[in-house]
Design goal:
Elements (H helix, E strand, L loop, with lengths): L17 H5 L1 H18 L9 E10 L7 E12 L2 E12 L5 H25 L13 E5 L8 E5 L16 H25 L2 H7 L12 H21 L4 H9 L1 H12 L2 H4 L2 E4 L8 E7 L6 E6 L6 E4 H13 L7 H24 L13 H26 L4 H12 L10 H4 L5 H14 L2 H17 L5 H4 L3 H14 L11 H11 L7 H9 L2 H23 L3 H10 L3 H11 L3
Antiparallel strand pairs: 1-2, 2-3, 3-5, 4-5, 6-9, 7-8
Helix pairs in contact: 4-10, 4-11, 6-7, 6-12, 6-13, 7-18, 8-12, 8-16, 10-12, 11-12, 12-15, 12-16, 15-19, 16-21, 19-20, 22-23
């Protein structure tokens, strides 16, 4: 277990370059950090006056991030007659413009993680294998002036941790990643319970924000008004997702209702806790703990906490699993089975963490069954997709009138009308890359299968209510608007419109309010996993075609016939539950 931390109050002017770290001023900076760290973490340590820095060797990190400059430091020093060495990883914010994101990470390391670590030390026995999957924090300071802002952690790579090949799908890595996320989420669940619940947590840590979209009538009306023009625009500028967009457009009047209903699911909302917010695979570092080839075991650390927040565990799990799924050689049911297996693994680990604190999942109104919990988490995948790929983009449209003007021209018989520049429609010229990435992730983790089932339910209810989807939602005019675009532009797979490096960088900046996407990720996401993508689109289309067919021909006899003949059997089985056929 890591040493218990107290809040760090030391404030130092941060070196900015390799030379500054290695100069006398940099050595004095390192000495003060060492003295402060051991004074805080070791009871009765009074050797500060004996610490003498011999040398500091600094190297710039070869893989720099978009928000901070980072360095690897080797610090050699004497404490009395004893020679010692520290391996440090140092992050310095690049500019005042990136301070807001860096503040979240620095506060995590400076305040929140130390508080959670104290809770661990005070609550658990030494032999309990539950810990925060984070590196040792030597020093963290945030003033917000880009002068005294700095993070110093252990250099995990010097302790045999490594980043996995992004083309890997090793099950042992997945288990380690699921356990690491379960530790973060579970420790926070128990800590939150111990201090009085969610609002006590958010009050104690005001930097951590709950990820919410406002909900009132005007916003709902705006979404209903602009969602179809938005979808048609996305199909035009990102033809790779035009097949998904085409089907969503068919049922656009139901989308906000689906989103709102999912948000009202109390069982799903109970899954909110502290999340990383950018849990993609390259933010995990792995270490081999067992060298038995028959039973490989790894541990995992999670780095880069700039995107942290208070949100559904589905957020972290969606990003993490996507990193594994996109490299699976198999398609279809193999992917669905991998997701199911991973989520059960995660839930079993979460239950273990809660049990270590004397808690049970039922204390948090969560299911005991890991299989049922997996279904709830997958519903969270749908919510994350809809929030980030549909609702939030529509609500943040920069020039709604311009979009509507273009849409009216397209819908009036001019499908070749050039779309307005992205910079005039979205908050930046590359925001569409972020939306595109969520469409790809959503397809890979099978969001559209769940969405299809929910849309069917909405249509079924609409048929027995005053709402007329034929009149308000699903017109032939809508079909024709997209048909002219999709027939000409849509490719077979999502591989042809890869964003360039500049676009990836902008996508990273655009995503910072909800999650962080690095420059390499967006490029890589486009070119990998095309077979899985094709399978996802095919399944997605079959489900929605079944919905439309059922919507028009809703009668028990048709279901019996379809089910007995095996046509689209899994989907018909879902429908059968409504009519007690099984």
């Amino acid at each position: 277990m890591l040493p218990a931390f107290t809040n760090m109050s030391l404030i130092l002017k941060s070196p900015k370059t390799v030379k500054e770290f290695e100069k006398r001023e940099g050595q004095e900076w390192a000495r003060k950090i060492i003295v402060d760290y051991y004074t805080r973490t070791e009871d009765g340590w009074l050797l500060g006056s004996l610490v003498k820095i011999l040398s500091v060797i600094a190297k710039a990190n070869p893989t720099q991030g978009g928000l901070s400059n980072s360095y690897c430091l080797e610090v050699f020093y004497k404490c009395g007659e004893n020679m010692s060495q520290e391996h440090w990883f140092v992050k310095i914010p690049k500019s005042l413009q990136t301070v807001a994101m860096d503040e979240r990470e620095l506060v995590m390391y400076n305040t929140i993680f130390p508080r959670l670590q104290v809770y661990l030390s005070e609550t658990l026995y030494e032999d309990v294998k539950v810990d925060l999957p984070i590196p040792i924090i030597y020093f963290s300071s945030f003033v917000g002036d880009n002068v005294h802002d700095c993070l110093v952690t252990e250099n995990l790579c010097a302790n045999r941790y490594f980043q996995v090949d992004l083309e890997t799908t090793k099950i042992a890595y997945m288990r380690a990643a699921m356990k690491a996320l379960a530790n973060v989420h579970g420790i926070t669940f128990s800590f939150m319970k111990s201090i009085g619940g969610k609002y006590a947590l958010l009050e104690q840590f005001p930097t951590i924000k709950e990820q919410l979209l406002p909900r009132h009538g005007k916003l709902r009306r705006d979404v209903q008004k602009y969602i179809l023009p938005f979808l048609v625009y996305m199909a035009k500028i990102k033809p790779d997702i035009s097949q998904q967009v085409q089907v969503l457009s068919k049922f656009h009047k139901f989308l906000y209702k689906v989103y709102s209903d999912i948000q009202d699911n109390e069982e799903l909302m109970a899954l909110k806790t502290l999340v990383h917010g950018d849990a993609k695979l390259d933010n995990f570092l792995f270490k081999k703990e067992s060298f038995d080839d028959q039973d490989e075991k790894y541990s995992a650390m999670i780095i880069d906490w700039q995107g942290c927040g208070f949100d559904l565990v589905s957020n972290d799990l969606m990003w993490c699993l996507y990193g594994f799924i996109k490299n699976l050689p198999e398609t279809g049911e193999m992917i669905h089975g991998f997701v199911e297996y991973s989520l059960v693994e995660y839930w079993d680990s979460l239950k273990y963490v809660l049990k270590a604190f004397g808690d049970n999942v039922t204390d948090f109104k969560l299911p005991e069954s890991s299989e049922w919990a997996a279904e709830i988490i997958k519903e969270g995948f749908t919510l994350e997709f809809m929030k980030n790929a549909i609702i939030r983009p529509v609500l943040s449209l920069k020039n709604k009138d311009l979009l509507l003007e273009w849409f009216n021209k397209v819908s009036s018989g001019s499908p070749d009308e050039p779309p307005p520049p992205e910079g005039e429609i979205f908050k930046s010229e590359t925001y569409s890359n972020f939306i595109y990435l969520f469409f790809k992730i959503g397809t890979e983790v099978n969001v559209f299968s769940h969405l299809g089932k929910v849309l069917f339910t909405q249509m079924k209810e609409a048929m027995f209510s005053d709402f007329d989807p034929d009149k308000d939602s699903d017109s032939e005019d809508d079909d024709n608007i997209l048909k002219g675009i999709v027939d000409k532009d849509a490719p077979k797979t999502m591989t042809s419109s890869a964003p360039n490096e500049a676009e990836n960088k902008a996508a990273t900046e655009n995503a910072t309010s909800e999650t962080v996407v690095n420059e390499e990720e967006s490029q890589e996401n486009v070119v990998n996993g095309s077979e899985n993508q094709t399978e996802g689109i095919k399944s997605f289309q079959e489900d929605f075609l079944t919905i439309k067919f059922t919507y028009v021909n809703l009668n028990l006899g048709l279901y019996e016939k379809l089910y007995k003949t095996g046509i689209n059997r899994p989907f018909c089985k879902i429908k059968a539950n409504y009519y007690e056929l099984d």
